[in-house]
Amino acid sequence: MGRVGSRESLGLLLAAGVLVLDQVTKAMVVQHMSLHESIPVIPGFFNLTYVRNTGAAFGILSSHTPGIRSVVLVLSSLLAMGFIVWIWFREKNPSWSLVIPMGMILGGALGNLLDRVRLGEVIDFLDFYWGKYHWPAFNVADSAVSLGILVFLPYLLLSREDKSTGPSG
Question: pTM above 0.70?
Fold first, then answer.
């Protein structure tokens, strides 16, 4: 691992910004709403709905005991963040197409990890639906992780193509 350059610094700043935005919005929800309260923002499409998710995405693992659930979710978060940092810093001169999504994913992972460690669950409040079709509630951290992964996938696919079409391929 070499020195941290300006791109990496901005990526870390982005991660910190995502973490702060996530924690501030969750604190506002907890302070101003009751658990399970729902406030229509765009009727028929989007509500702010305060819920707590004891499991992973979409409630995965929520039926397991709190001890098992916490250990699995905290360890998997730490492993994922370690993997992200490893990918990020193994590049000698990381491109923006790597630094930006890694910052988003890292900040989002830290936001949800902080909730899990402090509360044993994650605060969710962004509630989208269309008629009877309802997407599970999520938060700023979930959004950053999802968008970061979407932006990272082309980088991952293109870097694999570059390696397979290199001088020996």
Answer: yes
